[in-house]
Amino acid sequence: MRDVVMAAREKGEKDDVNIASVGRSRPCPDKAVHPLGRRTMTPADYRLILSAVIGIALSIVLIIRGRLHPFVGLLCGAFTVGLLAGLPMEDTAKAVEKGAGAILGGTGLVVALGLGLGAMLQLSDGAGGMARAALRLSGVKGAPWASLFTAIVIGLPLFFETGLVLLLPIVASAAAALPAGQNGDTAKLRLMLPALAGLSVVHALVPPHPGPLLAVNALGANLGLTLLYGLIIGIPTAIIAGPLLARFTAPGVALSPPLLDPVKVDVATPSVGRSLAAVLLPVVLIAAGQAVALLPPAVGVHFHWLSWVSDPVVALLVAVLAALPLLFGRRITDRTIQNAIWTEAMTPAGGIILAIGAGGALKQVLVTAGLSDMLVRVADGGAISPLILAWGVSVCIRLATGSATVATITTAGVMQGLVASSGVEPEWMVLAIGAGSLFFSHVNDPGFWLVKSYLGTDMAGTFKTWSIMETVVAIVGLLLVLFASSIF
Question: For residues 30 and 420, is the Cβ–Cβ distance under 8 A?
Fold first, then answer.
């Protein structure tokens, strides 16, 4: 495995354009010059930490108590950090604009196309057909495992919220159809919680989801290796946090009727094969482009065109165009269906794009203020592993902002210098950050309320099931990253 990885790296370094890092070159550890030789904390460092804590805390208060949108709350926090850290207002404003612009420049397209593909699978009932087929094949005993792996497959190209809307009502219906005595609240949760675990894991660890994809770009990681490592880490993590953990958290939790139902248009449900092709196409295109680096040079030169197809924007665009006939057949020219697809896709897009843009702004202010350099000095002191440090920073931002994507974006930005100076493989850094971004979802996370609505749990039940599950994913993910990074 190590030989394959090294071959991919060597090929990528020789190419004029490093296709694996989506247009960005990897930071070179040899060229990283430590700006400060000292490793002790200075008064300026403490001021910076205090500024970051106050700025993030203000964001929390504005979002939770003030009921402001995360976009506004995070921007207020970004300006607060800059001012308290001693940055001139003009520099702070430029950092905010730079951070938001850098994130939104390419991510907006990924968000829109991903939501479009999810809307097609939802409206055509393609994802529902795959889920029902998997649950029929699995039987009663295998139903939690079928729920888990169906969620992983369906969740590969979809946002967490879209996958949740698609899958949970189907799984709940399948649980209700179980034989008498085996369809109570505990049985339902033991089917639905594995689905949530699968969706969460791919959302945080597997490109082309926005969080991992942006971290890949920021840290100069290899996209194909990150996808491969994400699956290697994610599948056992989802197994532990899903079917296994549900045996302990599901009993004793009462369910009420779900508050939300999925939307569907009046079209024939596509076959499982067609739906599966639409789901896997962007992943296959991305993986194929990265596989070119593993081919002998004489062969690889004939497949160099795959490099641009593996770009996430191109891969998702091709998948969206292919999904139209696959999922809707001859009705792709029906104006009603086209309007429904993009209305359903764009409704959540604005909020998502604005929130991650504000997260990018906060990240850039923290970097401009010097937090990245300070973290480099702390890690260089040898007191803590760079991977653990990255995970811990991601956990703090996740707890503060409630957004896994914002936590990933912000942490990846401030960890760029640490990757360059420490020599740690950026793919493992991406996964450590992604794992930390899931830690303990609570009331400032929109996903918390969405899960509560679809599960039908009360507050205590949501904390017992969903919040604990997310925490287990974060901890197990970190442990597996630490273990796997020492092997590969």
Answer: no
